[in-house]
Amino acid sequence: MKNIYESQSANKQKSALIVILFAIFIAVVFYVIGNAFSYYLGYQPGGLGIVGIALIFSGLTSLGSYYYSDKIVLGISGAKPASKETYYDFYTISENISLATGLPTPKLYVIEDTAPNAFATGRDPEHAVICATTGLLSKLTRTELEGVIAHEFSHIKNYDIRLMSIVSVLVGSVALLADFFLRMTYFGRKGNSDRKGSQLDAILFVVAIILAILSPFIAQLIQLSISRRREFLADASSVAITRQPSGLVSALKKISGDHEALEAANKATAHLYFENPFKDKAKSGVGLFANLFNTHPPVEDRIKALEEMA
Predict the structure, then answer these.
(1) pTM score
(2) What stretches in the chain show pLDDT beneath 70?
(3) Catalytic residue among 144, 146, 152, 275
(4) Beta strands in the chain (DSSP E)
(5) Which residue of 25, 130, 217, 288 shows the fewest CB atoms closer than 10 Å?
(6) Which residues of 236-256 are buried (b: 16+ CB within 10 A; e: fewer)?
């Protein structure tokens, strides 16, 4: 049996390992496809080239996501500011957890939807937002609500909100680069026909085509793996804040037992939520292959991890 701090430490180590693997994967994809671009266009690989342009594009996109991700997510989710008069428990629980953690009280928003769920977004604790559905606020007891809101505070405290925004942009950049490369190769090689590439260039070009086909799927799998590990870490951090694993366990059982899908959620925002907003649709796949593409770990595993804490 692990205590809270051992569980937190184990999850941090696994999460850090996945993030490092993801960074290495991104670097390899950009290097291989970038050099293949140069070969395709008839130039010597190296210098700023296509890789530099792709990195600049990725950097600018990441910068925009860093500053405006919260507004974008709230806008496409149809979220509205929550007033203290109408959502008293939501406000007072958030203020109490804010005092307990030493974090600023985040901006609070609600989504008018009876499906119970919540998410946190923003770039740091000073610019964070917690958003809950009206279904969550009406169906959970105060103790259960404390567990869910403490879980979202943990995403803020652990800087998951920033990490997942950047990872999402990088995954999108890889998909865009791979798609652009495949479209170019479809029309045949262009550029300086007098230049004879080496055998290594030709091999690299073939590897790049294979990588361009597979990299969007691999990047998405790593992204989802990071997201799933972060859910375990946020659960453990929530218990460290409230000291009541039973509240979060009860909330997980109640939310997973509610089969109503959240209409405001989509594929771009699903990984942000406390629990998979698509509900039964997530179980439509087969065995391990289906679990690979799930945005959240199985509820049974989350409950088991919480119950193992001393």
Answers:
(1) 0.78
(2) 1-16, 18-19, 40-66, 169, 186-198, 200, 280-293, 310
(3) 152
(4) 80-81, 107-111, 118-122, 128-133
(5) 288
(6) bbbbbbbebbebbbbbbebbb
